[in-house]
Amino acid sequence: MLRFFVATTNPGKLRDFSAAAETHHRERGGHRDVNASTHSSALSEPSVMNQSLLDSDVLFEPLPGLKEIPAPAEDEPTFAGNARVKAIYYSSFAAGELVLADDSGLEVDALDGAPGVRSARFAVDSQFIAAGIDDIDRLNNLCLLERMRDVSAGQRQARYRCVLAAARDGACLFSGDGTVEGEILTAPRGDGGFGYDPLFYLPEMGKTMAELDLATKHRIGHRGRALRDLLRRMPPTR
Ligand SMILES: O=P(O)(O)OP(=O)(O)OP(=O)(O)OC[C@H]1O[C@@H](n2cnc3c(O)ncnc32)[C@H](O)[C@@H]1O
Ligand SMILES: [Mg+2]
């Protein structure tokens, strides 16, 4: 059993990690079944993944006591920098354990890459006030729509980025990153996911991220890709 304590305050990210663990569990079953005619490669990629990982179930548990731990500053200029800072910081609250941190966000071409590492704080940074709305995801989405009001249909390209970092006892051990390309809609669609998902449209799927089930989001999304990259880079002995 490979267990990560996930150090995130975002319940949407935790749901994504649960979906990842389920996929891995299911695929391990599929991998053992020599008669299976189809083999999905959403998390397990036998040619590149170390044997100990293929033999393990992967478990993602919320870091115990996270609510009581003051959040670290996320002031690094890159997702990689912030993921590393969070993983190292939170690992000191779980001695001897593998602690996983996620830094992610949205880059919009028409906004010169904003909100980027400031994605969680976009509406606050923009001093965007909408009366009666206390839900930060909704506020961030309204802010994004407002900032893109004059951007034409062909100019709305964007991508999600995710960097995951794993640390133990104050040392960052390995990391992974993932990206998914899309476009920003002019009105929200779908009620799944979190954050900017209702506005993030995937042309090849004909759906927003908020219209996908979690297994599909894991397969094509930035977090799923970052996780597969991290597991691929993980040393065989840990
Ligand atoms: O730092 P932690 O505690 O992990 O939680 P957070 O929500 O503050 O996370 P970030 O600092 O990494 O900010 C990322 C923001 O980017 C957005 N985001 C990242 N991944 C997303 C996803 O899969 N779907 C929708 N929005 C996402 C969302 O607004 C997040 O709040
Ligand atoms: Mg954060």
Describe this structure in words.
- This protein has 7 helices and 7 strands.
- The protein has helices spanning 11-32, 51-54, 79-91, 122-125, 136-147, 214-220, 222-233; strands at residues 2-6, 58-62, 98-108, 157-168, 171-184, 200-202, 207-208.
- Helix 1 (11-32) crosses helix 6 (214-220) and helix 6 crosses helix 7.
- By secondary structure, it is of the alpha/beta class.
- The structure holds inosine 5'-triphosphate (ITT) and magnesium ion (MG).
- Inosine 5'-triphosphate is lined by residues 8-10, 13, 74, 102-106, 119-120, 140, 160, 193-197, 209, 223.
**Shape label:** globular
Give average pLDDT, whole number: 89
> Over all CA atoms, what is the radius of gyration?
18 Å
The CA-CA distance between the termini, in Å, is: 12 Å
Structural class: alpha/beta
CATH class: Alpha Beta
Number of domains: 1
Task: Kindly estimate the percentage of residues that lie in beta strands according to DSSP.
Answer: 15-25%
Q: What count of helical segments does DSSP give? A: 7
Q: Which compounds are bound in this model?
A: inosine 5'-triphosphate, magnesium ion
Low-confidence stretches: 32-42, 44-48
CATH architectural designation: Alpha-Beta Complex
Largest sheet: 7 strands, mixed
Helical coverage, percent range: 25-40%
Number of beta strands? 7
How would you spell out the order of helices and strands?
EHHEHEHHEEEEHH
Strand line-up in the sheet with most strands = 2-1-3-4-5-6-7
GO molecular function: dITP diphosphatase activity; ITP diphosphatase activity; metal ion binding; nucleotide binding; ribonucleoside triphosphate phosphatase activity; XTP diphosphatase activity
Biased composition (Basic and acidic residues): 22-34
Organism: Silvibacterium bohemicum
Binding site for substrate: 8-13, 104, 194-197, 217, 222-223
